[in-house]
Design brief:
Blueprint (H helix, E strand, L loop, with lengths): L10 E4 L6 H6 L4 E6 L1 H6 L1 H10 L3 E4 L8 H13 L4 E6 L1 H14 L3 E5 L11 E5 L5 E6 L6 E5 H6 L2 H24 L11 H26 L5 H21 L3 H9 L10 H15 L4 H14 L15 H11 L15 H17 L2
Parallel strand pairs: 1-8, 2-3, 2-4, 4-5, 5-8
Antiparallel strand pairs: 6-7
Helix pairs in contact: 4-5, 7-8, 7-9, 7-11, 8-9, 10-11, 10-13, 11-12, 11-14, 13-14
The structure holds zinc ion (ZN).
Zinc ion (ZN) binds next to helix 11.
Length: about 375
């Protein structure tokens, strides 16, 4: 049996780490191609100023327009090449980071990832989500390696709006259950092998950390302060969930998320918020122990994650809408095929209705 585990080459997390950006960058080169939305760049301007003061590194700012499209990636790759940059740094949320990964891949240079929010487990991964110019999903792209460095400054995460951290908790919540389902089914993980004991332990640790520290971390983020609990949740959202999902595999929770996106009313909700409801749906589908479902519902409730359809904008619940979601969740290539039993749209629809009711009961 072939087992595969992938991860970034280095993960660093700490309060005030962006004070040392200059030294981190120097490990990869003296000319760094920098990709960030202007708002995110402004948030870290004081740290960039330190780099300018030291004058050891040249930062070349990519003309990033905010969307991770193939055109944008090609344009920025060309800018990085012309300027003979030695490494690519991406700063911000998912789109800037994904764009940086893709540019690094095309120009074959090291990639440094600087997440300013902890809303998903994407920073550590070896893939990117591409969109069209008008913001529609285009394709997934995966690269031959994960980022060379993922550098997280916990204070920057603590300063970001709390809804991002909570959404990250929702994304991380599914990791253990999807890993467990893949293991039962002997399904492949993202790099195309079976999971390792290491990856499964990481996925379990991710869940245990959320249970222990999510509420305390949310409070810390509300106060814009860094505490041990916040540090633990930042690690769970970015590192544990990132390694857990890639190296243990995805299953129903993420497919239900994908299905939910066919309904326009869910578009205002973050990825992790929909994944959180998808996790409850997966547990219902598996007929997980009531105590486990209740534990998950309680966690969601305690941090304000969605537990029923109304919480993700679906107020007017009809058979037709749920059918559409269920069919999309079971589309070709969806990871729901990794569940250890046959899943049809009818099975998904039934689980959605029940998950919705259980969530309402918990209110
Ligand atoms: Zn996710």
């Amino acid at each position: 049996m072939k087992k595969v585990l992938i991860s970034p080459s280095k993960y660093v997390q700490g309060e005030g780490e962006y004070n040392h950006l200059n030294d981190y960058f120097l490990q990869y080169g003296k000319k760094i191609f920098f990709i960030a939305h202007i708002d995110d760049k402004n948030r870290v301007q004081c740290y960039l100023d330190r780099i300018f003061e030291k004058n050891e590194i040249q930062l070349v700012f990519g003309d990033f327009e905010g969307e991770c499209t193939l055109d944008e990636i090609n344009k920025l790759s060309e800018q990085a090449r012309v300027n003979q940059c030695e490494a690519v740094a991406g700063l911000g949320g998912g789109k800037a980071l994904d764009t940086a990964k893709a540019v690094g891949f095309f120009i074959e240079k090291p990639v440094i990832i600087l997440p300013t929010i902890a809303s998903t487990d994407a920073p550590c991964s070896h893939s990117a989500v591409l969109y069209t110019k008008d913001g529609q999903f285009d394709r997934y792209m995966s690269f031959k390696k994960n980022p060379d460095l993922v550098l997280v400054d916990s204070q920057i995460i603590a300063n970001a709006p709390v809804r991002f951290l909570v959404a990250g908790i929702g994304d991380a919540l599914s990791t253990y259950f999807e890993a467990r389902a893949c293991q039962s089914a002997f399904a492949n993980n993202i790099p195309g092998g079976k999971s390792t004991k290491a990856a499964l332990a990481i996925a379990r640790q991710c869940y245990d950390t959320l249970m222990e520290d999510a509420v305390k971390a949310k409070k810390a983020c509300e106060c814009n302060v860094v505490t041990p609990a916040l540090e633990n949740i930042v690690e769970a959202n970015i590192l544990l969930s990132g390694l857990g999902f890639e190296s243990s595999g995805l299953a129903a929770a993420h497919s239900v998320h994908d299905g939910l996106t066919v309904l326009e009313e869910t578009h205002h909700y973050f990825h992790g918020e929909k994944v959180s409801f998808g996790t409850i749906v997966q547990l219902v589908m598996e007929n997980a122990p009531t105590s486990e479902i209740n534990e998950v519902l309680e966690l969601c409730k305690s941090v304000g994650l969605p537990i029923c359809l109304a919480d993700i904008g679906i107020v007017d619940v009809t058979q037709e809408k749920i059918k559409k979601v269920s069919i999309a969740a079971c589309a070709e290539g969806e990871t729901i095929g990794n569940m250890p039993f046959e899943v049809t749209p009818d099975v998904v629809a039934a689980a959605i209705f029940v998950a919705d009711k259980l969530g309402q009961m918990c209110k």
